[in-house]
Structure formats: C-alpha cells, structure tokens
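Q: I have 468 residues here and want to know how they pack in 3D. Can you give me a structure?
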Amino acid sequence: MTTITSDPGNRPTPRPSLRPGRGGPGTLTAVPHADQSQTTQKGAPVTYPGPPRPVEVSATPLAELAGQLGVPAPGKAVDITGITHDSRAVRPGDLYAALPGARAHGADFAAQAATLGAVAALTDPAGAERVADAGLVPLVVENPRGRMGELAATIYGHPGRDLLQLGITGTSGKTTTAYLMEGGLKAVRSTGLIGTVEMRIGDERIKSERTTPEATDLQALFAVMRERGVDAVAMEVSSHALVLGRVDGCVFDVAVFNNLSPEHMEFHSDMEDYFRAKAQLFTRARSKQGVVNYDDEYGRRLIDESEVPVVTFSAEGHPDADWRAEDVEVGPLGSTLTVVGPQGERATAKAPLPGPFNVANTLAAIVTLAVAGIDPQTAADGVAAVPGVPGRLERVDAGQKYLAVVDYAHKTDAVESVLKALRKVTENKLHIVLGCGGDRDRTKRMPMGAAAARFADTAILTSDNPRS
C-alpha cells in the first residue's frame, strides 16, 4: 500500500509532519534478490540457487536417517551432506525431498535431482517407484513433508540448539516486531533475522521468498548462521509455516503472540482454525516460553491454553498483565513510553515508528528480550536505535513537497491503523493507492476498500501482485 499525504507547508500552527526535511535522497530500502548470485561463505560466489548453505557439513549416514524415520535401512552405505525439497537446488550428496504437491509430485523431478548429484530421496508411497527409477535410494514414509524438518536438523547438526531463537507470530506486526527484537539483540549478541522482507546473516542481506522458509532451507540457514558466528536469531513464524511443518526441527527459546484478526481465509477454514494454527507455536514441541499480548482477545485465550509458561504484556497498561506500557506519548515520528515489569523493573523506551500499534510492537520486542535474559533498558535502547523497517510506514523522499509513505498493510485493521496514524499528522489531503494480492483471501478486499474510503480523502484502487 502506498499512502501520500500533503505537506503542511508554512501554514500557521500546522500539525507535525512525519517528513523530517525537504530534499535529500530517497529512503526506500532495496533488498538484493535471492538468486544464483547467493554465497555460502561471505565473498565466495557459487552457482547454486536458493538460500545459502554451510560450507562445512559432516556426512550423515543414510542408515541413521532411516532409523530416525523408523523405516528399513538401505541395502548400501550412502552418506548425506545436505537436503532440499527443490530439485533445481540439489547439490552433490543431497537427500532430495520429493513431496506430493497440488499440481505435481516432486518425484516427477527425481531424474533432475539425480543428475545434479542427489543420492537418495525422501518421499511417500506414490513417489517411491519414480525416485528408485531415477537411481535414488528411497526413504518412504506416509508424510514426507512432516518428517523433512527433523531430518534437516539432523543433517546439519541441530544448528538451532546453538542459537537463541526468538519466534514471533500473529496477524499484524510480525515483521516490525522481528526487526525491533533484532535491534535489541544487536546490543549484546551477533544476530540473524528471518522474515517477510529479507533474511539477514550478520550484515549479509538476502531477499525472502516467503515469511518463513521451508524446513530444508531454514535449517541450512541456521547452520550458516552458526558457522559465521551468529548466536541469536529473530524470526517471523507464519500460520502456514506451523501447519506445513516449516519450523519442524525448531524449538524456540521464546515464542511471541501479537494479535489475531481475519486473514488467510483462503487457507484456514475459519478463525478457530486460524487460532489453532497459531497456538501450535505455544506447545512444548515448538517452544520453551511464551510472551503473549494481553490486550488481544485471542491472546487472553492463549494464556489459558498454552502448554508452555507465558508472560503477558499490555500496551494499554492493563494491571493484570505482567509487563505494561505507562506514560505513553504518541508522536508524529514515534512514541515514548515507560516499560514496567512484574518485579518493579522500569525502562525508558521509544517506539521508532509512528502509530499506537507500534507501541505494542515495541513493548512486545522489549518484553521478549527481557524474558530471554537481556537487561530491559539495554533492550529498550537497542530497539529505539532501529532506523526503520522496510515497507512499514517507510518514507520515500525525492525532494517532493508532500510526504509519500509505503506500507505493506494488506489487512483491514492494518489499513485502518496506518491511515489513522497518518491522519493525525496530515494538515491537508490524505490519498491512498491500494491493491490486494491475487490468489489470496477475497473476503478482506471489500472491507479494505471500505477502510480506504472512510479514512482517506482519495482512494485509488488497483491491482497488486496478481500472481496468476
């Protein structure tokens, strides 16, 4: 979503503008594409597509993986040094995960995988004959997607165990909260980031293909992070990732729940199904500790249903929450607040992005870092230093006489929140250019258009990533 607001100019007693000054280069962030120019070791180009993999991998006997799956061991000794679900990204020594799909079966591409160096395949009974015909040693299970995450963790030496893993889920605010958590982590640790916009391994930036990578790519990323000295990662965890097993093999040190509102109804049957998907992150198989937004009705429900201990936070200052925001002052460029903890902890904090919703995101980040063992004031200072989040109320400045902002808002409540925040700092007209992504939830399109009509002076509706 792109929002354009009028600059107040030299009018008497104008409302504050988000735009810090005229002129200067644009501030829109560019993230490099993840393609065949990826690296495995910083500065060393390779020809393999997809996310990076570790340079050093100890071979895992295929018989060990078969034992882990509870299937018969292969008749010959085979060593595995990697795993992928993408036949185009196979490297020599790989286990190829030939998964059933909506349009095709991964076993149809087993010959390509074998040509590129795969030595074995994880598949289901429907794909067993085809992978064997391609010359790959088959490991056959009923649900290969549900098992490939744990195998990937084994192949790469359980790299997540050597990282502080912070996972954030919810309908809105995942990306912003992940960036803020990473900012706080940087004060005391070497960090990684995984999310909708990009993946970061230290200072290296890689364009994301989806919010949460497939399990094969995710475990490889963890291994690269470990190899390069990263010891903490902030990560977005989508409902798709939880349902489809993308985070299998992960146990998060702290899992965070921000909020829940209608979204992805093309994937989930109803809100109950959506909630159940999110709640999977708060099971003992997925996390050790939870941080939950007390201000959200689904968050309050999750407090009772979580399998792991939960710490709560409230940006609205609810007295029953463990951590609260007090003395909140919402400004045009951000907000200030005092973070108050259950043992009397107090930290002076700043939300580096505008809007009341970013007070909640900031509080979530600081509380999560505190639960992870970081001093709350140190965490708050790191969060305040975050320069911005790509595509989240991101200013585009080419010297124009009005403020132009790009925001990723693609849900009704997010559109409303962004427009309300901008309306407070707009003296004249507020214009919005809005589109909805193709092949996704149709039920939110009319409410999003209605929100644009209610809160903007002009609404321009257009297409956005039609997909097909």
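Q: Anything worth noting?
A: The longest strand covers residues 323-330. The chain has 13 helices and 24 strands.
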